[in-house]
Amino acid sequence: MRWAARVAGVMVFGAAIAALAAGFSGQVSPVLSGVLGTGVGALMIHNDRLRVRIRARSAQLERANQRLRAEIGVRKAAESALEASEKRTHDILSTLPMPVIVKDAQSRIVLMNHAAEEKWGVPFARAGGTAGHQWIPPARMLEVLDEDRAVFAARKVVVSESQVRNDANGRVVEVEAYKRPVFDVQGAPHSLICVYVDITQRKQAEDALQRSFLQLRALTAELEMLKEEDRRRIAQGIHDELGQNLLALKIDVEMLHARASDRHPRLKRRVGHVLDTIDATIRSVRMIMNDLHPSTLELGLPVALEWLVEQFEKRSGIRCTLKVAGAHAPMTDTRRTSVIFRIVQEALVHVLSHAQASRVDVTLAGGHEQLSITIADDGGGIGCGDEAAQRMRAIRERVDVFGGDLGIECVEAGGTRLSILIPNETGETAA
């Protein structure tokens, strides 16, 4: 505009001079007329130059205006595409059956699908722009904010379990939350995508399974205790009835053998054979009684295991040692002592059957909270795979009765180490 005003002014000024020169041409001298003509020519040249510069400047402005219009068109197209993309995203999220919530860097809700509205019992119109202070209890709200900050700090998807209370009906459900942080180009927190999966039924099934497992463990424990009680009762019956009868029979036969004179050598020999048979029968009865319920169990677990180790070494020919460490408080439940005794006995049977060992070391270590039993051999080992696990199933079932733990370790130098941990009666969690 300033260029146009200057050109117009020059043109008016030139036209005025030209008219003045024409009007006074007859009255001025030729010299002055020539000067005026020269000035008019210079003004016309300057006017032409101004016209050229104006056209060039106008062309530049036109091109800049075209570029600006093009940029505005691109921006409008981008805004339209963004709006369409956000609408498609919102439509997709709205059709998802699982709750989805999008938060900003300050944990304020910026997007919430229909499933989330139903699960939380809060419409997006009420939840949008807030962190949830209106319907989430203060203590839980602090936990949610801490979890969101932890997700941004981890810079990866974080999975966690929590409870959600429906604000409309007060119903509490268990959910598994998948939170993924989103960062801007500068790496600063931008938003948080939260996807929730309802795991209430799964939790209920897990609780039911846990209750069933505890009931099964209690039943197994009761069966083991009843079996040990039956063994003890049968052993006691054998001792009281069969043992007493055999002892009386032996006394009578010994008296008969003593009264048989040398005049009846054949009778004396026959009576001697009968005595040998009665002694063998008494030894067999005692062995059966000890197999059913060793009398040493009444003296405590360490004494019973010492007897077991001696019997194992005597019968198998395998060198067997027992090491007792720590404090061993007497067990008030003798049936519990019997079951632990059977665990060690079963383990030694497996060593004899599968390990092909020349030495077995048994360690009994007591503590305030648990009892540790280790059985190590130097043979080929009973294995550490599925086959060994199958062989150890009976032992594992007995260990599970007390909520204990069974571990099998293959030693590089050869052999196997069986580790058993059983909680004490005061710290027991089983049954």
TrEMBL record:
InterPro entries hit by this protein: HATPase_C_sf, PAS, PAS-assoc_C, PAS-like_dom_sf, PAS_4, Sensor_HK_TwoCompSys, Sig_transdc_His_kin_sub3_dim/P
Residue ranges the record marks as coiled coil: 202-229
Record-linked SUPFAM superfamilies: ATPase domain of HSP90 chaperone/DNA topoisomerase II/histidine kinase, PYP-like sensor domain (PAS domain)
UniProt entry tagged with the keyword Kinase: yes
Pfam families: HisKA_3, PAS_4
Domain PAC: 158-211
PROSITE patterns: PAC
UniProt keyword annotations, A-Z: Coiled coil, Kinase, Transferase, Two-component regulatory system
Listed name of the protein: PAS domain-containing protein
